[in-house]
Design brief:
113 residues, mainly beta, four-stranded antiparallel β-sheet, 1 helix
Amino acid sequence: MYVVGQQPQTVGSQTLYGGNLTLVNLTSNTASNAISISDGAPGAVSRLILADNNTLWIGMTKCTNGVRAASGAPDGCLTMFNTAANTVTMLEPYLGDATGIAAVTGLNKIYTP
């Protein structure tokens, strides 16, 4: 199971939130260490979808209000997680809220508004 959440962090004198992905093994009842993904606001909308080539796509909202934007790090709202390699790719150019994701399976594409 994949769980998305935000972890509070202090940047300067502000408390901001950094996005995290946690993998939960339901058979052994264990969880992975948190994996850094695009930021989001607590309680804000997030979307996840499994797509072609072992990819999990994560869309966040309010990502430009997070830790990465405040510290000058890549801060796009869309993240691709490779479930086979456990690697993350943040799509920097996608700066608007990722409010929906649709996978076009078999064509190696996703669409997001």
